[in-house]
């Protein structure tokens, strides 16, 4: 279901090790990346899908630390 090409696996592995994501977060990334792949009609999750999923996480973290005055 979530087929990654080699380049995507390496990017994902590096991010996973660098930021020490939990297993739950790892699976969230896969779901988001799979959604991006589906939107583009792609059978495999490629580099751009993984990068977009990782960027969504950073945006989400920034939004949760924002203080509304």
What do you see in this structure?
This protein has 69 residues and is mainly α. It has one domain. The protein is built from 3 helices and no strands. It has helices at 6-19, 23-39, 47-64. The longest helix has 18 residues, at 47-64. The protein is globular and about 30 Å long.
Summarize this structure as a short list of keywords or feature phrases.
single chain; 69 residues; mainly alpha; 3 helices; 71% helix; 0% strand
Write the layout of secondary structure elements.
Elements: H1 6-19, H2 23-39, H3 47-64
Protein name: Magnesium chelatase
Domain Mg chelatase-related protein C-terminal: 1-57
Pfam family, one: Mg_chelatase_C
Summarize the structure.
The protein is mainly α.
Rg over CA atoms: 13 Å
The total of beta strands comes to 0
Q: Profile the largest sheet.
A: none
| Total helical elements | 3
Q: Fraction of residues in helices?
A: over 70%
Low-confidence residue ranges: none
Question: Given the helix and strand composition, which structural class is it?
Answer: mainly alpha
Order of helices and strands, N to C?
HHH
User: Can you tell me the overall shape?
Assistant: globular
